[in-house]
Amino acid sequence: QVQLVESGGGLVQAGGSLRLSCAVSGRRFSSYAMGWFRQAPGKEREFVAGIRAIRWSADYADSVRGRFTISRDNAKNTVYLHMNSLKPEDTAVYYCAGRLDSLRALWTREYDYWGPGTQVTVSS
Known about the structure:
By secondary structure, this protein is an all-beta fold. It is 0% helix and 49% strand. Strands 2, 4, 5, 6, 9, 10 and 11 form a seven-stranded mixed sheet that branches. It has a four-stranded antiparallel sheet with strand order 1-3-8-7, with no helix packed on it. The N and C termini lie far apart (40 Å).
């Protein structure tokens, strides 16, 4: 089974930075499109950022574009989310997701594998 485990969450002051990591098991990580989603209490899960296996094309939600950067290290089977200039509204549980890459848009929720999530709390 493919397993995803997020790490790097925590409490940070507004304006600060965090780097989330997602470690993925298996041998086919280099073929996966990877995404980051988040869910705040009382709200639906929303797309944050995604990166393809092919050409490492990336996409971002408008709310984080320019502040967050997604990257991957295929040698380590790991995808990262670098978060800068954090705001209280970024507070949420952040989930890592993966699927074999295709022509489907990165922002869809049609991912096959999901991590358990990591909490990010931004104080005002």
